[in-house]
Each structure stands twice: as structure tokens, then as C-alpha cells.
Amino acid sequence: MVYLELMREYDPTELEESERWVVPIWEPVRRKFFIPPPPNPPIPIWLPDKPLESNAEVLYMIASHPKRGGTIKEIFVFKTLQIVQIYDVFSYGRRFYRSLVYTTDARYSLRDLQPPISERRSMWVSWGRHEVNE
Prior knowledge:
It is built from 1 helix and 7 strands; from the N terminus they run E-H-E-E-E-E-E-E. By secondary structure, it is mainly beta. Strands 1-2-3-4-5-6-7 form a 7-stranded antiparallel beta sheet. The longest helix is centred in the N-terminal third of the chain and has 12 residues. It starts with 5 loop residues before the first strand and ends with a strand.
């Protein structure tokens, strides 16, 4: 697990200029999975305190799921590949491990995940063509 000072709460309107590339990649995923229907509040997502440098290719964020015992989610947004990967972080034997639970493009994951075809009742959205959710 990457240890950084994560102090800023994610808000697409308050991102630094060097972080604005994240919005078109991350926002569709955030709206789909991290904003529950009312009256439940959105799941808070935390960014590093220090803004990204202008040449950064990856943004790292953390979320904690309130209803799943505080399960920690690590979120990686890749600029060049235009993908999002979400990992569950769990501990086993005093060590922390990541398990990939979601990606917007399974072709770039090292885990053998297959996009489901039985659940598709309509055409996929452009950002979720190769989307996989465990």
C-alpha cells in the first residue's frame, strides 16, 4: 500500500490545473459507483495533499466504503491509457494486499478479468467498452 499524506477531499471543481485531466476519465466512474442514491451521502474520496506535477501520468486516491466495514479502496487514474483501476485493500497476517475489483479496460490489467456479456441489456458507454466489475 502506498503511504502518502491524503488530506484533500476530491471535488472536480477544486482541482489544480495540473489535475484537470482526471475529470473526463474519473467522473463517469465516480458517478456510477461512488455517488449512492439519496438520502445517502457520497463516498468521500481523498487526494494527496500535494497537487500533481504537470508531467504526472497517474493520480492516486483513496476511498473508504462506509457500509462495508470501512473497506479501503485504492483508485488509480491513468492519463495516457485513459483508464481507472480500483483495488480493495485488505490485511492478512499483518500485511496489506491489493485485489483488483474494477477496471475501465480489462486489456490493461494483469488479472484475468472478463467483461460480462450476460448483463448487457443495452450498448455500452464509450468509456466502459472493456469495463469489468468484480
